[in-house]
Automatic annotation (TrEMBL):
Protein name: HTH marR-type domain-containing protein
Keyword line: DNA-binding, Transcription, Transcription regulation
PROSITE patterns attached to this UniProt entry: HTH_MARR_1 (PS01117), HTH_MARR_2 (PS50995)
Pfam hit, one: MarR_2
Entries under PANTHER family matching the protein: TRANSCRIPTIONAL REGULATOR, MARR (PTHR42756), TRANSCRIPTIONAL REPRESSOR OF EMRAB OPERON (PTHR42756:SF1)
Molecular function, one GO term: DNA-binding transcription factor activity
SUPFAM superfamilies tied to this protein: Winged helix' DNA-binding domain
Domain HTH marR-type: 18-150
Organism: marine sediment metagenome
Length: 175
């Protein structure tokens, strides 16, 4: 197990009780991603590829649309990632059934072999993140984050029913 950073190494504002939850969650997610990416780099895998590999390890043969839905990413983002994963030899894409337009992604032997090397990296990242927390604190944290996710998913549905929309990345960037 790695040694914990000293308490004073965390920015003072991050420890204040009035700090916004949204900011703390964003900073934690960013730190998780960076910590895992640091490890994934040793295998030449990006964080984005990791997301799709994890899904395919459980649900091999999904279509690009199904993968993008499960990853909560846009289809163009999935398309780019899958194309690169195919170039790297992690997956093959092919048509299934009579639909000649819909391609499905299937892991290659190389893609399956990555699982044994990458999953321990994710476990190590998670263990690093919860180091110093008691078991009951981890349980409470899981429950609280799960509840927050459900609350925000509900909020999004309510907003959508009132006609509120999340702009696409293209429209936000003026494209």
């Amino acid at each position: 197990m790695t040694e914990l950073p000293p308490e004073g190494s965390i920015p003072h504002s991050a420890g204040q009780s009035e700090e916004r939850i949204a900011r703390l969650v964003r900073l934690a997610a960013r730190a998780f991603n960076r910590s895992l990416q640091m490890r994934l780099n040793t295998e030449g895998v990006t964080f984005g590829q990791w997301i799709f590999l994890r899904i395919l390890w459980s649900h091999d043969g999904l279509s690009q649309r199904e993968l993008s839905d499960k990853a909560h990413l846009t289809e163009p983002t999935a398309h780019s990632a899958l194309r690169r994963m195919e170039e790297l030899g992690f997956i093959v894409r092919r048509n299934v059934g009579s639909n000649k337009r819909r391609q499905h992604a299937f892991l290659t032997e190389k893609g399956w072999d990555l699982r044994d090397r990458l999953e321990p990296m994710a476990v190590e990242t998670n263990e690093s993140a919860i180091a110093g927390l008691k078991d009951d604190e981890v349980t409470i944290l899981r429950r609280a984050l799960s509840k927050m996710i459900r609350n925000l998913e509900h909020d999004e549905k309510v907003g959508a029913s009132r006609g509120l929309k999340i702009p696409s990345t293209r429209s936000r960037n003026g494209l």
